[in-house]
Amino acid sequence: MAAAALASHCVHAEPLPRQHISFQGPFAVEADGIQNINIAYNSDLDGELAIAYGECNAASRLQVAHHIGSTHVGEHPSAKRHVGWEGSRPTKFVWRAPARIESGCLHAFVGDELVGRSKQFQVSRRQRKKRATFAEISDPMGPWFDGVEYLKQKNSNETFVAATKEKKFGILGGGISGLLTALILESVGIHHWKILESSDRLGGRMHTAYLNKSRPEDYQYHELGPMRFPYSIHDAETNETFAIEDQKMVFQLADILNEMNKNEDPALQVNFIDWIQTSDNAPVATSQRRKDGTVPGRMETRLNPELLDNANLTYSNTTAVYEAMAALDDFKALTPERVRFYAKDVFRAHKEAVEQSMLDFSEVEYLRHVMGYDANITDQVTSTAVSWPMWEFETVYFMANKWLTIDKGMSRLPEAFRPLVQNRTSFNTKVFGIKHHKDSNSLTVSSRPTGSSPWTADTTTEDFDYIFNSVPFNLLRFWDLPPYSSLMKRAIERTVFDGAVKVAMQYKERFWEHLERPIIGGCGRVDVYGIGQICYPSYKINSSGPGTMLTSYISSSDAVVACSMPEEEHIAYIQRAMVEIHGPIADEMWTGNYARHCWEQDEHHAGSWAVPIVPQQQLYLPAFWQTEFNTVFIGEHTSYTHSWVFSALESAVRGSVQMLLDIGLVDEAKEVNRRWMARWINL
């Protein structure tokens, strides 16, 4: 009855003699939701502007029950803070609608005078889970964005006026998370952004090596950073194939960039080709050798298990080792249903992993302190050098039966951003400090030219209103920073990063494809210490001319040791291993051309990827959902998953939505969420 009466009042509301303010549609509101209010000024108003919601026939502020917010506009002395708006009269506001709301109208007042009234609003309702803080609302342990309720944690007048899109945004780092952030800002009409990049190129850890000064179209390359994208998993029992949903964000980005660059240089188009992850004749880790002394391949060892080492002979207690292995498998419980769950929604899979204590233990801790196995049995089952949590998303990735990579190199993806960012990126700009100014609520970034003398080089400063910081935390530890919260400060100082080294080598011909047992793409491992993973090119199979392969890929402490070797010594060690694996042909075909990259020694990264140890993942994630000193932290180290391109992309979307909500651009935040997160998150 009350709703009907209110509707009746609204329909018969008297028209205003003159509307100094016009409300712009759409005239729909979601109960217990957040949205923007957009207005237009029909005259130059000065004074305290208040906006309220209630019965459509209300004539005074006292008759309107729901006060939305107020601020000073125009020539009023307190309106100076709105200098970014024309005439200091903001036109965009934030409305936090109450849960109990009926159909009504918006009203604008200057002082006690009614200066504008909207059309009648239609109300929609949706079940919404109430939580106490943004970190809980955004749920860093699982589905990160269940609703745009962030602003409900702040004072209504503090967040009432949305920021103008003329604010200046700094993006620290031109890796893939920084690049996507720039694209997102541009897509919602924010054009005053600038990237500060310490190196001379785009892409960060997306780094393709084109050997011997070749061009991408020469196909003499391999990846020194990420190599591939897991695409789909085949369930042999059901004969079903299902997609790995999170990776679709990569392909979506490529589609957007291709459309954006359709009238640009065709070389900027991002095209995907199949990546061969496993092949029949790729070498395997065994001490056994063929009669000619070379390393046997995958299919050979499957047909002749005697070519494999018998691990049982090395165990001190075979029964205990197998029981411990089974205990880990039981705890992880990667059933076909759970594998599908991980592939469908990595966010909710993460939440489940937290709830089931998967992130509370490393494999070592679980076997030692939960199952009670001694240190020796534990170390035979899983390396005691590792203390990572049992967050099994990567195990699921490597169940993929289909993989993709980017034609002509993974660096083609960041290069596709170049038309957008080229003239708004400051390359070779090495930031070393950020200062927040309380009086102006702005930030000053201090930098020096990369490679310049730290003793004599002049410091360059640049001011921003807001910052997206994608720089790895291990580099931030040496910066001058604002006094972040204790949790954020500890995350910066203590998050663990891994190291890795990759070596690509060029040969006169693709000899591996012409061996007695041809190796057609794929990755393998050998028992030659310090070689790790070897990957053969998936492109231009059986083509003539030179060929390039990834001859070594190792991480962690092994990478530290390898990178401490003189480069020539390391390359010689790897080349001798290539001869042992493939035979003398590897020496005959060796060109002497190679590319080696030690990520831990890279001044722009100081590591390969984040490896938060127990309990860092669930401890520090909530800190990244808090905006401190107008700064949002992005990058793969702030994501649910780590070391994959998706991790960095997800962080950019989350960070952009977070920032847009902070500055009151709610409609834009929803637009970004719909565009990038709709496959998981329904707002």
From TrEMBL:
Pfam family, one: Amino_oxidase
SUPFAM superfamilies xrefs: FAD-linked reductases, C-terminal domain, FAD/NAD(P)-binding domain
UniProt domain Amine oxidase: residue ranges: 176-659
Superkingdom of the source species: Eukaryota
UniProt xrefs under InterPro entries: Amino_oxidase, FAD/NAD-bd_sf, Flavin_monoamine_oxidase
GO molecular function, one term: L-amino-acid oxidase activity
GO biological process, one term: amino acid catabolic process
PANTHER family in the record: AMINE OXIDASE DOMAIN-CONTAINING PROTEIN, FLAVIN MONOAMINE OXIDASE
Name of the protein this chain belongs to: L-amino-acid oxidase
